[in-house]
Amino acid sequence: MDADAPVFAIAVAAELAGMHPQTLRQYDRIGLVVPGRTRGGSRRYSMRDIEQLREVAQLSSEGMSLPAIARLLDLEDEVRMLRRRAIELENALRAERENRPGVRVFAAGATGSIVPVGSGRRIRRATEVVLWRPRSASDPDQG
Q1: pTM above 0.90, yes or no
Q2: Engineering a disulfide at 135: which of 21, 38, 84, 142 sits with its beta carbon 3.0 to 4.6 angstroms away?
C-alpha cells in the first residue's frame, strides 16, 4: 500500500494513532497534520499521516511545543523532497554520462565561446586555450 494514499477515516486514524478524534481535528485546524479530503469533505488519513500523528504524540509527551513540532514536520517533509530531487539529479547525471562516452575536453575560442574538442583533435594554441577536462575514473593520470 502507498504510504501517502488517504484511506483511513478519522475514527480509524485516531485509533491507530492512539488519540481522540477531536485531537486529530484540532491538529488539522492548526495545520499540524493535514489529511486528504473526500469529495464530500470527510477527512482521510494516510499511513504517513498516522506516523506523523504518532510522532507528534511522542514529541508532545517529551515537552516539545506544537509550533516546534510543526516546524520539525515541515523540515522532515523538505528533507524527503530534497532526497527525491537528489536521486532524480543523480539518475539524470548517470544517464547523461552513459550517453556521452569518452573524455570530453573544452576550449575557449578566440571570441570567448566554449568549444568542445573532439578526441584526437589538435588545438591551435594561437586561437584556443584548454579550460577544463573532467576527471575520469579510468584515467590513471587523474586523482
Answers
A1: no
A2: 142
